[in-house]
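pipeline: protein-struct stage 2 | run 1193 | DnaJ homologue subfamily C member 28 conserved domain-containing protein
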Amino acid sequence: MGWLDRIAERLMLKARAEGKLSGLAGEGKPLPAHPEEAMIDTGTALGYRIMAEAGVLPTEIVIKKEIDALRLALADLPEGEDRRAALARLADLEMRHAMAQEARRAFMR
């Protein structure tokens, strides 16, 4: 266990002793399943979940949602100028998503 883990553990034990961890929303219930979390590590997934519950989403997740929506829209677009523009937008979003992922990974190192 590293020094950061020990500090976090002590803070959690202190909060529990002071009663700050009881009576929280969803206490004693399993966390809901989120399939997208299977693609990232548990710690990052937990951080994302906390941010989402607070109404804050990281850029990486916002872009991923845009990509998913655009892929659904592309399925119905016929060949033509609109489809080419949508494909160019998809390529741009995928590049921005990869950059956001890499920035997160670099930050977590």
